[in-house]
Every structure is written in structure tokens, then in C-alpha cells.
Amino acid sequence: MKLFVEADVQPEVLAGERIAVLGYGSQGRAHAMNLRDSGFDVVIGLRPGGKTTAKAENDGFQVLPPDQAVDGAGLIAFLAPDMVQASLYEAIESKLKANATLLFAHGFNIHYGRIEPRDDLDVVLIAPKGPGDLVRRQYEAGRGVPCLMAVAQDVTGNAKARALAYAHGIGGTRGGVLETTFGEETETDLFGEQAVLCGGLSELIVRGFQTLVDAGYQPEVAYFECMHEVKLIVDLLHEGGLAKMHEFVSETAKYGDLTQGPRVVDEHTGERMKQVLKEIQDGTFANNWVAEYESGLPEYTRLMEEDLRSQIETVGKELRGRMAWLRE
Ligand code: NAD
Ligand code: MG
Questions:
Q1: C-alpha of residue 135 to centroid of ligand 1, in Å
Q2: What is the pTM of this model?
Q3: What is the mean pLDDT for each group of 10 consecutive residues in the chain (328 residues)?
Q4: Ligand 1 pocket, mutate which of 31, 33, 43, 46 (most atoms under 8 A from CB)
Q5: Which residues are near ligand 1 (CB < 6 Å)?
Q6: 100 C-alpha vs ligand 2 centroid, how far in Å?
Q7: How many CA atoms lie within 13 A of 72 on its CB side?
């Protein structure tokens, strides 16, 4: 593993270059504000009439339509949603200056060939391992969120140095920048969110809740056990891995964990995880997602409504209303 830190940065490779940030959402706003505070000349590219235009203007940025924002920019950060990036690239390609750097925060469009950049451009990735508000708050506190870095196309010979200078500008070198590839970042990011984080964890919670409710226990008690207390355990895991969790839970919880956990998540789950990963690797998931997006999100909308109408959501809303600290 190679970790890049502040001492590895060559700030001169980006000095005096204008940076166009396309998109002003979670990542876009944080990157733009950190880069500006690091002394860069930043312009924001957004669709005229888009929702976040006023926010960027109130934050003191110049906002232009994307094809004007990239005009003269030495580095263009693609921080619009993944599903609009391909058409966004088409709209700006002819305005990109020779040898400019395209920068992504997730490798999806490059890795799956949805964007095929002009061959005079450097193409790099800087992916902070945290949401935008953390990227901003840590920067303001003089710290930084660790980032992944990758290079897909290096025409100038400076692609990696330019990526690192950008990571430095958003505070990433304070946390450390880990080198990877577009393929590794894309496939592991998709797998993590599908199998473990958003997908796996939420299904585990909902199934646990349903098991208790179906057995006749009160939904409110089931909610506390299966949803509410997840945070306690996740915080321990996040702070100190399995060891810290074991340190803070009871002996009975530890014995139950070690003996019963592997019965719930077993080799069959492992086999299905491999299948999920295979469909990420062979492009099946990406093709399905693009097709779903392009047909107006019918399945996505149906499943989302089902999720939000479920009993755990109704019960949770009621109980969380009594937790004053959640409103702070
Ligand atoms: P977001 O949904 O929060 O914000 C998207 C922004 O793009 C908004 O300002 C929106 O108005 C703008 N936009 C929408 N369509 C546009 C268009 N056609 N042209 C120009 N601007 C347009 O997005 P996000 O979550 O910050 O994600 C941006 C990128 O960062 C993605 O590649 C994502 O995978 C990656 N990423 C996100 C996170 C995260 O925590 N959210 C973490 C790491 C990487
Ligand atoms: Mg779910």
C-alpha cells in the first residue's frame, strides 16, 4: 500500500490553473469551498435554473452553464450525479482546452466506458472516503478526510501529481491519499454499498425487526433492538474494530455474537455476495442501473415507496419524535 501525504505534493503542477467544479451537491460544495480556501481560482458549472445555483451564488461563487465554466479551466471536476455525467461530458467536450485534467470522485462512467475522454486529456480520480459535509468540516478544523486516488489516462506525465495537488486542496493529504485504480475504486465502492452498507445492513435490520414482530413482540421494542441500537455498535466498530466492540458489550452478547452470528450470515450469504460482485465486475449491474435510469426509474420508484411505507418506518418516526437529541 502506498499512502501519499503533504510532503509528496508538488503544488506547482496546478498553480495558477482555473478549476471548474461541475455540480454543487454533497461533494461539489465541499470541494469548491476547500479549494477556494486553499487559494485556487474556482468556478462552478451548473445547468441554468438548477436547484443548487442559488446556494453556490450565496456562497460567493461565479456560476456558469457547464460549457462556459470549463472554458479555459485546467482541471474539471465531475461532481454531478453519476447518471448525468455522460451527457454532461458530451456537452462540454468541444470546449475543453488541450491537456486539461478531468477529475472524478467515483470511477463509474470511466470504468464502464460511458465516458470515453478525448485522448489529449489527463483523467484522474480523487474519491474522499466520506460525505461532503465531513470533507468540509474536517478541512475547516485543519484536518482532512482520507481519499483514494487513481489515474486512467496520463498524457502530460503529470496526471498523478495534479490529482495529488487537487487532493491536497480539499484537505485529503492531511488524512492520507491511497493509490488505487478506477476499476478497484468503482467495483469495491459498488459492492460495499450493495452488500454491506446500504443494502446488506438495512436488510439485516428490517429482517430482524420483522422476525420479532411476527413472533408477537411489540414493534416499538423490536425497533429499539434492531434499528436504534445499531448506532452504538457501528460507532464501536468504526472507532476500534471488532476488538473495541467486544470490549464494550456484555459477556453474554459476546458469546451470542460468536456462536449465533455465523448462523445468520453464513456461507450462503457469502455465495450470494460473490454473485453480486460478479455482476458488478461483468457490467450487469451498471447496465441495469443505466437502463432503469433512462426508462424513468419505474422499479426504483416502486421499491423506494415500498421501503418508506414499511412498518419499521412508521414505528421509527414515532419513536424518534421522542428523542430530543436527534433534532439538535
Ligand atoms: P449530489 O446529488 O449531492 O449533487 C449533484 C449536483 O449536480 C447538484 O448540484 C445538481 O444540481 C448538479 N447537477 C445535476 N445535473 C446536472 C447537470 N446535468 N449538469 C451540471 N450539474 C448537474 O451529488 P454527490 O453525491 O455529491 O455526487 C457527486 C459525485 O461524487 C458522484 O460521482 C458520486 O459518486 C461521488 N461521490 C459522492 C460521495 C457522497 O458522499 N455523496 C462520496 C464519494 C464520491
Ligand atoms: Mg433496503
A1: 14
A2: 0.95
A3: 94 95 98 98 94 96 98 98 98 98 98 98 97 97 97 98 98 97 98 97 98 98 98 97 97 98 97 98 98 98 96 96 90
A4: 46
A5: 22-28, 46-47, 50-52, 66, 79-82, 84, 88, 105-106, 127-128, 131-132
A6: 40
A7: 9
> Which grid coordinates belong to 317?
418516526
Would you put residue 311 in left (φ > 0), alpha (ψ -120 to 50) or beta?
alpha
Side-chain-side CA neighbours of residue 78 (13 Å): 28
Q: Is 63 exposed, middle or buried (0-12, 13-18, 19+ CB in 10 A)?
A: buried
Rounded CA-CA distance 129/153 in Å is 22
Which ligand sits closest to the CA of 198?
2
Residues serving a catalytic function are 106
Q: Which ligand is nearest to the CA of 204?
A: 2
